[in-house]
Amino acid sequence: MTETDLTHHMEKDLMRPGDDSDICVAVATPPGTSGLAVIRMSGAGAGLLVDTLFQPAGPRFGKPSQMAGYTCAVGQIVDPGSRLMVDQVVLTRFTPPHSYTGEEVIEISCHGGPAVKQAILDLLLRQGARAAQPGEFTRRAFLNGKMDLAQAEAVMDLIAADAARSAQNAAAQLLGRLSDKVRQEALSLYPLLARVELILEYPEHDELEAAQEGLLRDLGAIASRLRHRADSYEQGRILREGLTVVLAGQPNAGKSSLLNALSGYERAIVTAIPGTTRDTVEERVDIRGIPVRLIDTAGLRSSSDPIEQLGVARAHQALRQADLVFWLFSPPLDDVDAELEQMRQSGCEHQVMLVSKEDLQSSTDLVARIRRSRPSEPLLTCSALTGEGLEQIRDQIIQVYESRGAAQSQDILISNSRQRACLEKAAGQLEAALEALSGGLTLDVIASLLRGALDALAELTGENVSEELIDSIFSRFCVGK
């Protein structure tokens, strides 16, 4: 069974969690050829299992099962059947409870050729290990109390991060900063619930009227903070998925040249022939720490060419999904008003007019004509050839990012819809409790709503979550993590 076959086999078995007491194994580094690779095992007895395969390089290195935790040994992996060496390796042992998973962990650093990795993996499976499922190591860490669910989700975000701020936000969540803030809100709620339950239990000492003002104030403040946190999702989503920026306009308007200039290399084909780009061309770039999906589109015009028609249809689809559109105007342009009307009809909320090829003398006249038609709207100019105006384009991209959500730039951002739903549910329960309190509803209703808010916060961190949700979250992880 090859490494790829093994991955496919495990993907079919995603929703059948393995026995968390057995030993699981996977290649923790990406498939393909590399200088080094890491094969990871976790479970009680992992050291004993690899004792049968590992031959220490000298007397100073003992058997893996006898190694102290957090130490390494140099040696060889030997096939016990043929007695032939498979590879020279460095073996590291981690002992519970301070390993990544909270269990005994063995990591084998070997050479990164596919044949070598597969041979070692096959030997470990033959000795009794089980192929790890996607996310199983992090799942075990969660189940063993090494991290909560928000931290576990941050692991995958950190792996997938392709821009500086994305990595920073994921790292902050991995450190538990989001979880800490959520638990602080829960700790603020418990005394309020206790106060309500005390009045319920001892109605003869009815303190509701005296306590009502404080309850309204405190519940309102907590609900407001939770809403504010949930509102950071739009920025967090962008850090996770990327800000979608579409370059649109007529054929030969300079869209592909601009894509190449912002990407830093020749990503798209550029010619003087209109209609060179027939399909959308996408590139992910890091712009001042923000991940951006730059999409170059086919020139928007009527055409009898069926291939070009498909390209134009895809361009319109990209426009509907865009967070920001730069609409390129290129000199010479005969009918400015018709092009402005086409831009208006595209329907994107954030559109910026951009005169390309600023290095051409005729661009000055084009800028003047556009300003006469749209005097109050922002207009940028640029030259992909000279680099003029590129910083202003980047400024505009960052401005759109900063306009999303209510979060401060230094704050922890909510990066997935599950976390947002938990916060919104908790805030909604508290807002309902405020209405109930103001409307004179019974205290048992108010207490029930406060418990509902606490349950929603516990769901965010994984303290109150179903097995099905756990399965769903970890099934999206990569194998080996």
Task: Write up this protein.
The chain is α/β, with parallel strands linked by helices and 481 residues long. It has 3 domains: 3-148, Probable tRNA modification gtpase trme, domain 1 (Gyrase A, domain 2), CATH 3.30.1360; 162-232 and 413-462, Up-down Bundle (Four Helix Bundle (Hemerythrin (Met), subunit A)), CATH 1.20.120; 245-403, P-loop containing nucleotide triphosphate hydrolases (Rossmann fold), CATH 3.40.50. The chain is built from 17 helices and 13 strands. A 7-stranded mixed sheet has the order 3-4-5-6-2-1-7. Helix 5 runs antiparallel to helix 6 (164-174), helix 7 (177-201) runs antiparallel to helix 8 and helix 8 packs antiparallel against helix 15 (417-438). The radius of gyration is 29 Å and the shape is flat. Mean pLDDT is 86; it is low at 1-18 and 269-278.
Mean pLDDT: 86
Name the CATH superfamily classification of the largest domain: P-loop containing nucleotide triphosphate hydrolases
Can you list the strand order of the major beta sheet?
Answer: 3-4-5-6-2-1-7
Q: How many E-type strands?
A: 13
Please tell me what the overall shape is: flat
Please report the distance between the alpha carbons of the first and last residues.
21 Å
The main β sheet shows up as:
7 strands, mixed
Identify the notable features of this structure and list them briefly.
481 residues, alpha/beta, Gyrase A, domain 2, Four Helix Bundle (Hemerythrin (Met), subunit A), Rossmann fold, 7-stranded mixed sheet, 6-stranded mixed sheet, 17 helices, 16% strand
